[in-house]
Protein backbone atom coordinates (compact mmCIF):
# COMPACT_ATOMS: atom_id res chain seq x y z
CA UNK A 1 0.00 0.00 0.00
CA UNK A 2 2.82 2.38 0.99
CA UNK A 3 6.30 1.91 -0.33
CA UNK A 4 9.36 4.03 0.34
CA UNK A 5 12.38 3.16 -1.74
CA UNK A 6 15.84 4.62 -1.15
CA UNK A 7 14.38 7.73 0.46
CA UNK A 8 16.80 10.33 1.82
CA UNK A 9 15.90 13.65 3.42
CA UNK A 10 18.35 16.47 4.01
CA UNK A 11 18.18 19.60 6.14
CA UNK A 12 20.77 21.75 4.44
CA UNK A 13 23.82 19.49 4.21
CA UNK A 14 22.72 17.30 7.13
CA UNK A 15 21.11 14.03 6.09
CA UNK A 16 18.35 13.34 8.63
CA UNK A 17 17.25 10.17 6.82
CA UNK A 18 19.57 8.10 4.64
CA UNK A 19 18.48 5.71 1.97
CA UNK A 20 15.61 3.95 3.74
CA UNK A 21 13.17 1.37 2.42
CA UNK A 22 9.82 0.77 4.07
CA UNK A 23 6.88 -1.26 2.90
CA UNK A 24 3.47 -1.31 4.53
CA UNK A 25 0.68 -3.63 3.36
CA UNK A 26 -2.99 -2.76 3.54
CA UNK A 27 -4.44 -3.42 7.01
CA UNK A 28 -1.09 -3.77 8.74
CA UNK A 29 0.08 -2.05 11.90
CA UNK A 30 3.77 -1.32 11.43
CA UNK A 31 6.01 0.38 13.95
CA UNK A 32 9.12 2.52 13.44
CA UNK A 33 11.36 2.27 16.50
CA UNK A 34 14.20 4.60 17.34
CA UNK A 35 15.40 7.16 19.83
CA UNK A 36 15.11 10.93 19.51
CA UNK A 37 16.69 12.19 16.31
CA UNK A 38 16.76 8.76 14.68
CA UNK A 39 14.75 10.09 11.72
CA UNK A 40 11.24 8.82 12.46
CA UNK A 41 9.50 12.20 12.36
CA UNK A 42 11.48 13.25 9.30
CA UNK A 43 10.33 10.09 7.53
CA UNK A 44 6.74 10.91 8.46
CA UNK A 45 7.09 14.48 7.24
CA UNK A 46 8.48 13.22 3.95
CA UNK A 47 5.47 10.92 3.51
CA UNK A 48 3.06 13.76 4.47
CA UNK A 49 4.68 16.17 2.04
CA UNK A 50 5.85 18.62 4.71
CA UNK A 51 9.48 17.86 3.83
CA UNK A 52 10.65 17.05 0.33
CA UNK A 53 12.90 13.98 0.01
CA UNK A 54 16.27 14.74 -1.57
CA UNK A 55 16.32 11.31 -3.19
CA UNK A 56 14.13 8.24 -3.56
CA UNK A 57 10.52 7.57 -4.31
CA UNK A 58 7.37 7.22 -2.23
CA UNK A 59 4.51 5.18 -3.69
CA UNK A 60 1.00 5.05 -2.28
CA UNK A 61 -1.39 2.50 -3.78
CA UNK A 62 0.95 2.20 -6.74
CA UNK A 63 1.07 5.96 -7.45
CA UNK A 64 4.06 8.16 -6.77
CA UNK A 65 3.29 10.78 -4.12
CA UNK A 66 6.87 12.07 -3.88
CA UNK A 67 6.91 15.85 -3.66
CA UNK A 68 3.12 16.30 -3.73
CA UNK A 69 1.78 19.13 -1.54
CA UNK A 70 0.47 18.14 1.92
CA UNK A 71 -3.16 18.79 1.01
CA UNK A 72 -2.95 16.45 -1.99
CA UNK A 73 -1.54 13.73 0.23
CA UNK A 74 -4.39 14.07 2.73
CA UNK A 75 -6.79 13.84 -0.21
CA UNK A 76 -5.04 10.67 -1.35
CA UNK A 77 -5.83 9.15 2.06
CA UNK A 78 -2.73 9.52 4.23
CA UNK A 79 -3.10 11.55 7.38
CA UNK A 80 -0.46 12.32 9.96
CA UNK A 81 -1.04 12.76 13.65
CA UNK A 82 2.07 14.72 14.59
CA UNK A 83 4.23 14.34 17.67
CA UNK A 84 3.45 17.81 19.00
CA UNK A 85 -0.20 17.34 17.94
CA UNK A 86 -0.46 20.58 15.97
CA UNK A 87 -3.99 21.31 17.14
CA UNK A 88 -5.71 24.67 16.68
CA UNK A 89 -5.32 25.78 20.31
CA UNK A 90 -7.93 28.55 20.50
CA UNK A 91 -10.59 26.61 18.61
CA UNK A 92 -12.98 24.37 20.51
CA UNK A 93 -12.63 20.59 20.48
CA UNK A 94 -15.64 20.40 18.19
CA UNK A 95 -14.23 22.95 15.72
CA UNK A 96 -10.91 21.11 15.65
CA UNK A 97 -12.74 17.95 14.65
CA UNK A 98 -14.69 19.80 11.98
CA UNK A 99 -11.46 21.21 10.54
CA UNK A 100 -10.12 17.64 10.51
CA UNK A 101 -12.81 16.80 7.97
CA UNK A 102 -11.60 19.58 5.65
CA UNK A 103 -11.20 17.26 2.65
CA UNK A 104 -14.79 16.06 3.12
CA UNK A 105 -16.23 19.48 3.93
CA UNK A 106 -19.05 19.23 1.43
CA UNK A 107 -20.35 15.91 2.77
CA UNK A 108 -22.18 17.26 5.80
CA UNK A 109 -23.84 13.99 6.75
CA UNK A 110 -20.57 12.09 6.67
CA UNK A 111 -18.86 14.75 8.80
CA UNK A 112 -21.60 14.40 11.42
CA UNK A 113 -21.23 10.63 11.45
CA UNK A 114 -17.46 10.88 11.77
CA UNK A 115 -17.80 13.25 14.70
CA UNK A 116 -20.08 10.88 16.61
CA UNK A 117 -17.69 8.02 15.87
CA UNK A 118 -14.82 10.02 17.34
CA UNK A 119 -16.91 10.92 20.40
CA UNK A 120 -17.72 7.25 20.84
CA UNK A 121 -14.04 6.36 20.70
CA UNK A 122 -13.12 9.15 23.13
CA UNK A 123 -16.15 9.98 25.31
CA UNK A 124 -14.16 12.59 27.23
CA UNK A 125 -13.98 14.69 24.06
CA UNK A 126 -17.76 14.89 23.91
CA UNK A 127 -17.79 16.22 27.48
CA UNK A 128 -15.20 18.83 26.55
CA UNK A 129 -16.50 19.65 23.11
CA UNK A 130 -16.94 23.37 23.81
CA UNK A 131 -13.55 23.77 25.52
CA UNK A 132 -10.60 25.28 23.71
CA UNK A 133 -8.19 22.60 22.51
CA UNK A 134 -5.32 24.40 24.22
CA UNK A 135 -7.00 24.01 27.62
CA UNK A 136 -7.08 20.19 27.50
CA UNK A 137 -4.66 17.92 29.35
CA UNK A 138 -1.85 16.22 27.42
CA UNK A 139 -3.74 12.94 27.12
CA UNK A 140 -6.91 14.65 25.95
CA UNK A 141 -4.97 16.66 23.39
CA UNK A 142 -3.49 13.45 22.04
CA UNK A 143 -6.99 11.96 21.81
CA UNK A 144 -8.18 15.05 19.98
CA UNK A 145 -5.21 14.85 17.60
CA UNK A 146 -6.07 11.24 16.79
CA UNK A 147 -9.75 12.13 16.53
CA UNK A 148 -9.02 15.02 14.19
CA UNK A 149 -6.89 12.73 12.03
CA UNK A 150 -9.72 10.16 11.88
CA UNK A 151 -12.11 12.86 10.64
CA UNK A 152 -10.44 12.76 7.24
CA UNK A 153 -11.39 9.05 7.01
CA UNK A 154 -7.83 8.06 6.15
CA UNK A 155 -6.82 4.86 4.44
CA UNK A 156 -3.56 5.15 6.28
CA UNK A 157 -2.67 6.92 9.50
CA UNK A 158 0.82 8.00 10.53
CA UNK A 159 1.02 8.26 14.31
CA UNK A 160 4.10 10.02 15.62
CA UNK A 161 4.88 9.09 19.22
CA UNK A 162 1.34 9.13 20.59
CA UNK A 163 2.59 8.00 24.01
CA UNK A 164 5.08 10.80 24.53
CA UNK A 165 4.68 12.62 27.84
CA UNK A 166 1.59 10.71 28.92
CA UNK A 167 0.86 8.87 32.17
CA UNK A 168 1.32 5.04 31.94
CA UNK A 169 -2.38 4.34 32.35
CA UNK A 170 -3.26 6.73 29.50
CA UNK A 171 -0.52 5.21 27.35
CA UNK A 172 -2.14 1.82 27.72
CA UNK A 173 -5.54 3.23 26.69
CA UNK A 174 -3.93 4.99 23.76
CA UNK A 175 -2.43 1.76 22.45
CA UNK A 176 -5.77 -0.02 22.83
CA UNK A 177 -7.40 2.70 20.76
CA UNK A 178 -4.69 2.49 18.10
CA UNK A 179 -5.22 -1.24 17.89
CA UNK A 180 -8.96 -0.68 17.53
CA UNK A 181 -8.48 1.90 14.77
CA UNK A 182 -6.30 -0.62 12.95
CA UNK A 183 -8.84 -3.44 13.40
CA UNK A 184 -11.57 -1.16 12.02
CA UNK A 185 -9.67 -1.06 8.74
CA UNK A 186 -7.17 1.80 8.85
CA UNK A 187 -3.59 0.89 8.05
CA UNK A 188 -1.34 2.31 10.76
CA UNK A 189 2.29 3.35 10.68
CA UNK A 190 3.39 4.12 14.22
CA UNK A 191 6.59 5.81 15.38
CA UNK A 192 7.53 4.98 18.96
CA UNK A 193 10.29 4.94 21.52
CA UNK A 194 8.16 2.78 23.79
CA UNK A 195 9.27 -0.37 21.96
CA UNK A 196 7.74 -2.99 24.20
CA UNK A 197 4.23 -1.52 24.18
CA UNK A 198 4.38 -0.79 20.47
CA UNK A 199 5.65 -4.23 19.45
CA UNK A 200 2.87 -5.85 21.48
CA UNK A 201 0.25 -4.42 19.15
CA UNK A 202 2.26 -4.20 15.91
CA UNK A 203 2.61 -6.79 13.14
CA UNK A 204 6.08 -5.73 12.05
CA UNK A 205 8.70 -3.17 12.85
CA UNK A 206 11.68 -1.23 11.57
CA UNK A 207 14.46 0.02 13.81
CA UNK A 208 16.06 3.38 13.04
CA UNK A 209 19.41 4.59 14.23
CA UNK A 210 20.77 8.03 13.36
CA UNK A 211 18.87 8.27 10.10
CA UNK A 212 19.41 4.74 8.82
CA UNK A 213 17.37 1.62 9.14
CA UNK A 214 19.33 -1.01 11.04
CA UNK A 215 16.99 -3.91 11.79
CA UNK A 216 13.61 -4.99 10.51
CA UNK A 217 11.35 -7.94 11.16
CA UNK A 218 8.15 -9.22 12.67
CA UNK A 219 7.24 -8.13 16.18
CA UNK A 220 8.26 -11.49 17.60
CA UNK A 221 11.63 -11.33 15.89
CA UNK A 222 12.29 -7.81 17.11
CA UNK A 223 11.22 -8.62 20.67
CA UNK A 224 13.72 -11.51 20.60
CA UNK A 225 16.48 -9.46 18.93
CA UNK A 226 19.31 -8.70 21.32
CA UNK A 227 20.18 -5.28 19.92
CA UNK A 228 16.57 -4.17 20.15
CA UNK A 229 16.18 -5.55 23.65
CA UNK A 230 19.29 -3.81 24.88
CA UNK A 231 18.58 -0.49 23.21
CA UNK A 232 14.85 -0.06 23.68
CA UNK A 233 13.42 -2.50 26.17
CA UNK A 234 16.14 -2.44 28.76
CA UNK A 235 16.33 -6.18 29.33
CA UNK B 1 -20.19 69.14 26.69
CA UNK B 2 -20.94 69.82 23.06
CA UNK B 3 -17.28 69.72 22.22
CA UNK B 4 -16.89 66.44 24.03
CA UNK B 5 -19.64 64.64 22.09
CA UNK B 6 -18.37 66.17 18.88
CA UNK B 7 -14.87 64.90 19.60
CA UNK B 8 -16.10 61.48 20.67
CA UNK B 9 -17.88 61.21 17.34
CA UNK B 10 -14.73 62.29 15.53
CA UNK B 11 -12.75 59.72 17.48
CA UNK B 12 -15.21 57.03 16.46
CA UNK B 13 -14.87 58.05 12.82
CA UNK B 14 -11.07 58.10 12.79
CA UNK B 15 -11.03 54.90 14.82
CA UNK B 16 -13.25 53.15 12.26
CA UNK B 17 -10.79 53.92 9.48
CA UNK B 18 -7.80 52.89 11.58
CA UNK B 19 -9.48 49.63 12.58
CA UNK B 20 -10.18 48.66 8.97
CA UNK B 21 -6.59 49.29 7.93
CA UNK B 22 -5.20 47.53 11.00
CA UNK B 23 -7.48 44.52 10.41
CA UNK B 24 -5.99 43.91 6.97
CA UNK B 25 -2.51 44.21 8.37
CA UNK B 26 -3.17 41.88 11.29
CA UNK B 27 -4.82 39.22 9.12
CA UNK B 28 -1.76 38.95 6.90
CA UNK B 29 0.55 39.04 9.89
CA UNK B 30 -1.50 36.34 11.60
CA UNK B 31 -1.17 33.76 8.86
CA UNK B 32 2.15 34.59 7.21
CA UNK B 33 4.00 36.46 9.95
CA UNK B 34 4.87 39.13 7.42
CA UNK B 35 4.66 42.77 8.55
CA UNK B 36 3.38 44.07 5.24
CA UNK B 37 4.76 47.59 5.08
CA UNK B 38 3.30 47.91 1.58
CA UNK B 39 -0.20 47.85 3.10
CA UNK B 40 -0.11 51.66 3.27
CA UNK B 41 0.47 51.77 -0.48
CA UNK B 42 -2.56 49.55 -1.02
CA UNK B 43 -4.55 52.02 1.04
CA UNK B 44 -3.30 54.91 -1.08
CA UNK B 45 -4.05 53.08 -4.35
CA UNK B 46 -7.54 52.29 -3.06
CA UNK B 47 -8.27 56.01 -2.77
CA UNK B 48 -6.75 56.84 -6.18
CA UNK B 49 -8.67 54.13 -7.98
CA UNK B 50 -11.99 55.23 -6.50
CA UNK B 51 -11.18 58.86 -7.30
CA UNK B 52 -10.13 58.12 -10.86
CA UNK B 53 -13.25 56.13 -11.59
CA UNK B 54 -15.42 58.94 -10.27
CA UNK B 55 -13.61 61.70 -12.13
CA UNK B 56 -12.86 59.99 -15.43
CA UNK B 57 -16.04 58.08 -16.02
CA UNK B 58 -18.39 59.72 -13.57
CA UNK B 59 -19.10 56.41 -11.96
CA UNK B 60 -21.13 56.52 -8.78
CA UNK B 61 -19.22 56.58 -5.48
CA UNK B 62 -20.34 53.14 -4.27
CA UNK B 63 -19.67 51.39 -7.57
CA UNK B 64 -16.28 53.08 -7.83
CA UNK B 65 -15.52 51.84 -4.35
CA UNK B 66 -16.55 48.29 -5.23
CA UNK B 67 -14.24 48.30 -8.27
CA UNK B 68 -11.45 49.69 -6.12
CA UNK B 69 -11.93 46.90 -3.56
CA UNK B 70 -11.67 44.33 -6.31
CA UNK B 71 -8.62 45.87 -7.98
CA UNK B 72 -6.69 46.44 -4.76
CA UNK B 73 -7.66 42.98 -3.52
CA UNK B 74 -6.24 41.44 -6.67
CA UNK B 75 -3.16 43.59 -6.30
CA UNK B 76 -2.74 42.10 -2.83
CA UNK B 77 -2.97 38.60 -4.30
CA UNK B 78 -0.41 39.56 -6.94
CA UNK B 79 1.88 40.85 -4.21
CA UNK B 80 1.65 37.48 -2.46
CA UNK B 81 2.26 35.47 -5.62
CA UNK B 82 5.04 37.57 -7.12
CA UNK B 83 6.89 38.64 -4.01
CA UNK B 84 6.03 36.95 -0.72
CA UNK B 85 5.36 33.42 -1.99
CA UNK B 86 8.75 33.07 -3.72
CA UNK B 87 10.35 34.31 -0.50
CA UNK B 88 8.58 31.80 1.75
CA UNK B 89 11.75 29.86 2.57
CA UNK B 90 14.02 32.90 2.79
CA UNK B 91 15.07 34.45 6.11
CA UNK B 92 12.29 36.72 7.50
CA UNK B 93 14.27 39.91 6.91
CA UNK B 94 13.86 39.40 3.15
CA UNK B 95 10.09 39.72 3.42
CA UNK B 96 10.47 42.99 5.28
CA UNK B 97 12.92 44.39 2.73
CA UNK B 98 10.64 43.31 -0.11
CA UNK B 99 7.63 44.92 1.58
CA UNK B 100 9.43 48.25 1.91
CA UNK B 101 10.58 47.94 -1.70
CA UNK B 102 7.01 47.49 -2.84
CA UNK B 103 5.88 50.45 -0.77
CA UNK B 104 8.45 52.68 -2.48
CA UNK B 105 7.68 51.26 -5.90
CA UNK B 106 3.92 51.71 -5.61
CA UNK B 107 4.28 55.25 -4.33
CA UNK B 108 6.57 56.25 -7.16
CA UNK B 109 4.13 54.56 -9.52
CA UNK B 110 1.23 56.62 -8.15
CA UNK B 111 3.28 59.77 -8.50
CA UNK B 112 4.06 58.92 -12.11
CA UNK B 113 0.44 58.33 -13.04
CA UNK B 114 -1.46 60.81 -10.90
CA UNK B 115 1.23 63.35 -10.04
CA UNK B 116 2.21 64.63 -6.62
CA UNK B 117 -0.73 67.03 -6.24
CA UNK B 118 -3.12 66.88 -3.34
CA UNK B 119 -6.56 66.04 -4.65
CA UNK B 120 -9.98 66.13 -3.10
CA UNK B 121 -12.68 63.56 -3.53
CA UNK B 122 -16.20 64.94 -3.61
CA UNK B 123 -18.81 62.78 -2.08
CA UNK B 124 -22.51 62.63 -2.90
CA UNK B 125 -23.04 62.65 0.87
CA UNK B 126 -21.77 66.10 1.79
CA UNK B 127 -24.95 67.32 3.52
CA UNK B 128 -24.79 68.24 7.17
CA UNK B 129 -27.08 66.39 9.52
CA UNK B 130 -27.96 66.76 13.15
CA UNK B 131 -27.19 63.76 15.28
CA UNK B 132 -28.00 63.66 19.00
CA UNK B 133 -27.36 67.37 19.32
CA UNK B 134 -24.11 67.41 17.37
CA UNK B 135 -23.69 68.21 13.74
CA UNK B 136 -21.86 65.94 11.33
CA UNK B 137 -21.60 65.47 7.62
CA UNK B 138 -23.38 62.48 6.18
CA UNK B 139 -20.03 61.17 4.95
CA UNK B 140 -18.72 60.85 8.52
CA UNK B 141 -21.82 58.94 9.53
CA UNK B 142 -21.31 56.68 6.52
CA UNK B 143 -17.71 55.99 7.51
CA UNK B 144 -18.89 54.70 10.87
CA UNK B 145 -21.78 52.64 9.54
CA UNK B 146 -19.74 51.29 6.64
CA UNK B 147 -16.76 50.31 8.78
CA UNK B 148 -18.85 48.63 11.44
CA UNK B 149 -20.88 46.74 8.82
CA UNK B 150 -17.67 45.53 7.15
CA UNK B 151 -16.27 44.40 10.50
CA UNK B 152 -19.42 42.44 11.32
CA UNK B 153 -19.37 40.80 7.90
CA UNK B 154 -15.70 39.91 8.33
CA UNK B 155 -16.41 38.45 11.75
CA UNK B 156 -19.25 36.32 10.41
CA UNK B 157 -17.11 35.19 7.50
CA UNK B 158 -14.24 34.13 9.75
CA UNK B 159 -16.32 32.48 12.46
CA UNK B 160 -19.28 31.02 10.63
CA UNK B 161 -18.02 29.85 7.26
CA UNK B 162 -15.77 26.90 6.59
CA UNK B 163 -13.52 28.85 4.28
CA UNK B 164 -13.17 31.62 6.87
CA UNK B 165 -12.23 29.06 9.51
CA UNK B 166 -9.32 27.93 7.34
CA UNK B 167 -7.79 31.40 7.77
CA UNK B 168 -8.13 31.13 11.54
CA UNK B 169 -6.84 27.56 11.54
CA UNK B 170 -3.78 28.58 9.57
CA UNK B 171 -3.15 31.50 11.93
CA UNK B 172 -3.29 29.19 14.94
CA UNK B 173 -1.14 26.40 13.55
CA UNK B 174 0.23 26.51 10.04
CA UNK B 175 1.49 22.91 10.01
CA UNK B 176 -1.71 21.71 11.61
CA UNK B 177 -3.55 23.32 8.69
CA UNK B 178 -1.30 21.42 6.29
CA UNK B 179 -1.99 18.16 8.10
CA UNK B 180 -5.78 18.41 7.84
CA UNK B 181 -5.42 18.99 4.10
CA UNK B 182 -5.90 22.75 3.82
CA UNK B 183 -4.19 24.26 0.78
CA UNK B 184 -2.29 26.99 2.56
CA UNK B 185 -1.31 28.78 -0.67
CA UNK B 186 -4.97 29.38 -1.46
CA UNK B 187 -5.63 30.56 2.09
CA UNK B 188 -2.72 33.00 1.84
CA UNK B 189 -4.08 34.41 -1.44
CA UNK B 190 -7.54 34.76 0.04
CA UNK B 191 -6.12 36.59 3.04
CA UNK B 192 -4.20 39.04 0.85
CA UNK B 193 -7.37 39.61 -1.18
CA UNK B 194 -9.36 40.44 1.97
CA UNK B 195 -6.54 42.56 3.34
CA UNK B 196 -6.28 44.63 0.15
CA UNK B 197 -10.06 44.96 -0.01
CA UNK B 198 -10.22 46.28 3.55
CA UNK B 199 -7.53 48.87 2.77
CA UNK B 200 -9.48 50.02 -0.30
CA UNK B 201 -12.71 50.33 1.68
CA UNK B 202 -10.99 52.31 4.44
CA UNK B 203 -9.33 54.64 1.93
CA UNK B 204 -12.44 55.19 -0.19
CA UNK B 205 -14.57 55.90 2.88
CA UNK B 206 -12.14 58.35 4.41
CA UNK B 207 -10.82 60.06 1.27
CA UNK B 208 -13.68 62.61 1.10
CA UNK B 209 -12.81 63.93 4.57
CA UNK B 210 -9.06 63.86 3.91
CA UNK B 211 -6.91 64.50 0.87
CA UNK B 212 -5.68 62.07 -1.76
CA UNK B 213 -1.94 62.15 -2.49
CA UNK B 214 0.86 59.60 -3.04
CA UNK B 215 2.12 59.81 0.55
CA UNK B 216 -1.33 59.55 2.17
CA UNK B 217 -0.60 56.01 3.38
CA UNK B 218 2.46 56.90 5.44
CA UNK B 219 0.90 58.06 8.64
CA UNK B 220 -1.99 55.64 8.38
CA UNK B 221 0.25 52.59 8.06
CA UNK B 222 2.51 53.76 10.88
CA UNK B 223 -0.52 54.12 13.09
CA UNK B 224 -1.90 50.77 11.94
CA UNK B 225 1.35 49.20 13.09
CA UNK B 226 1.00 50.95 16.43
CA UNK B 227 -2.52 49.54 16.65
CA UNK B 228 -1.61 45.94 15.91
CA UNK B 229 1.38 46.09 18.23
CA UNK B 230 -0.68 47.42 21.08
CA UNK B 231 -3.60 45.14 20.27
CA UNK B 232 -1.36 42.07 20.00
CA UNK B 233 0.18 41.07 16.65
CA UNK B 234 -2.26 38.92 14.68
CA UNK B 235 -5.21 39.49 17.00
CA UNK B 236 -8.47 40.54 15.35
CA UNK B 237 -10.27 41.94 18.41
CA UNK B 238 -6.97 43.66 19.23
CA UNK B 239 -6.92 45.42 15.87
CA UNK B 240 -10.52 46.63 16.23
CA UNK B 241 -10.22 47.74 19.82
CA UNK B 242 -6.77 49.23 19.23
CA UNK B 243 -8.09 51.23 16.27
CA UNK B 244 -10.85 52.78 18.34
CA UNK B 245 -8.58 53.43 21.33
CA UNK B 246 -6.22 55.31 19.06
CA UNK B 247 -9.07 57.18 17.33
CA UNK B 248 -10.55 58.38 20.62
CA UNK B 249 -7.20 59.26 22.18
CA UNK B 250 -6.21 61.25 19.12
CA UNK B 251 -9.36 63.29 18.79
CA UNK B 252 -9.61 63.98 22.52
CA UNK B 253 -5.90 64.73 22.72
CA UNK B 254 -6.16 67.12 19.79
CA UNK B 255 -8.90 69.07 21.56
CA UNK B 256 -7.75 69.02 25.14
CA UNK B 257 -3.97 68.81 24.84
CA UNK B 258 -2.70 70.12 21.54
CA UNK B 259 -3.81 69.81 17.96
CA UNK B 260 -0.22 70.12 16.72
CA UNK B 261 0.86 67.06 18.61
CA UNK B 262 -2.06 64.79 17.75
CA UNK B 263 0.03 62.46 15.61
CA UNK B 264 2.49 62.09 18.44
CA UNK B 265 -0.21 60.75 20.74
CA UNK B 266 -0.34 57.39 18.94
CA UNK B 267 3.27 56.72 19.72
CA UNK B 268 2.99 57.96 23.27
CA UNK B 269 0.10 55.56 23.73
CA UNK B 270 2.22 52.74 22.33
CA UNK B 271 4.98 53.43 24.84
CA UNK B 272 2.55 53.55 27.74
CA UNK B 273 0.60 50.40 26.83
CA UNK B 274 3.70 48.36 26.06
CA UNK B 275 5.25 49.41 29.36
CA UNK B 276 2.26 47.92 31.16
CA UNK B 277 1.48 44.98 28.86
CA UNK B 278 4.57 44.10 26.82
CA UNK B 279 2.73 41.51 24.72
CA UNK B 280 -0.06 43.90 23.74
CA UNK B 281 -3.65 43.93 24.89
CA UNK B 282 -4.73 40.62 23.37
CA UNK B 283 -1.53 38.79 22.40
CA UNK B 284 -3.12 36.30 19.99
CA UNK B 285 -5.60 34.77 22.40
CA UNK B 286 -8.60 36.27 20.70
CA UNK B 287 -7.96 35.26 17.10
Main features:
heterodimer, A: 235 residues, alpha/beta, Rossmann fold, 2 domains, six-stranded mixed β-sheet, four-stranded antiparallel β-sheet, 26% strand, B: mainly alpha, ABC transporter involved in vitamin B12 uptake, BtuC, two-stranded antiparallel sheet, 2 strands
Q: How many domains of chain A, as an integer?
A: 2
- Please indicate the percent range of residues of chain A in DSSP E strands (runs of 2 or more): 25-35%
Supply the helix-strand structural class of chain A.
alpha/beta
**CA radius of gyration of chain A:** 17 Å
Q: Give a quick account of the main beta sheet of chain B: strands, pairing sense, barrel closure.
A: 2 strands, antiparallel
- Average pLDDT over all residues of chain A: 91
What is the total tally of β strands of chain A?
10
Indicate the multimeric state.
Answer: heterodimer
The CATH topology of chain B turns out to be ABC transporter involved in vitamin B12 uptake, BtuC
- Predict the CATH topology of the largest domain in chain A: Rossmann fold
Protein described:
The complex is a heterodimer of chains A (235) and B (287). Chain A folds into two domains: 1-77 and 155-173 and 186-235, P-loop containing nucleotide triphosphate hydrolases (Rossmann fold); 91-153, no CATH class. Chain A contains ten helices and ten strands. Chain A has helices at residues 40-48, 70-76, 93-100, 108-121, 123-127, 138-150, 168-183, 195-201, 219-224, 226-233, and strands spanning 2-11, 14-24, 29-33, 55-60, 63-64, 78-81, 156-160, 187-192, 204-209, 212-218. In chain A, the strands form two sheets. Chain A has a six-stranded mixed β-sheet, sandwiched between helices. In chain A, strands 2-1-4-5 form a four-stranded antiparallel β-sheet, covered by helices on one side. In chain A, β9 and β10 form a beta hairpin. In chain A, α3 (93-100) runs parallel beside α6. By secondary structure, chain B is an all-alpha fold. Chain B has a single domain (2-276), classed as ABC transporter involved in vitamin B12 uptake, BtuC (Orthogonal Bundle), CATH 1.10.3470. Helix content of chain B is 74%, strand content 3%. In chain B, strands 1-2 form a two-stranded antiparallel sheet. In chain B, β1 (128-131) and β2 (134-137) form a beta hairpin. In chain B, α1 (2-32) runs antiparallel to α10. The mean pLDDT of chain B is 90. Classes of the chains: A alpha/beta (235), B mainly alpha (287). Chains A and B meet through α2, β6 and α3 of A and α6 and α7 of B.
Amino acid sequence: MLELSNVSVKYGSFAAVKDIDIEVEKGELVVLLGSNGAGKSTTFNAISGLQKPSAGDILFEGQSITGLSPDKIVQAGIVQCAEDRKLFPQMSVHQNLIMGAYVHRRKRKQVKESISEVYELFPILREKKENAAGSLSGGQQQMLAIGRALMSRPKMMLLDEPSIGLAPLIVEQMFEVIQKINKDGTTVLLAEQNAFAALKIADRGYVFESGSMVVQGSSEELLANDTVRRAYIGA
Amino acid sequence: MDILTQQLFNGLTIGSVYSLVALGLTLVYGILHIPNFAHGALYMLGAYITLTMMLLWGIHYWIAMAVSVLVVGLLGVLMDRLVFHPLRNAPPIHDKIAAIGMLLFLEAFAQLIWGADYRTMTTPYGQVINLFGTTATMQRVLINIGAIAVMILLYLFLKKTYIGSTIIAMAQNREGAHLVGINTNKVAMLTFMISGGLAAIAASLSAPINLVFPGMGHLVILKAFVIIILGGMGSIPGAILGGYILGFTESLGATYISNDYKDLIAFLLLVIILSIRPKGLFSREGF
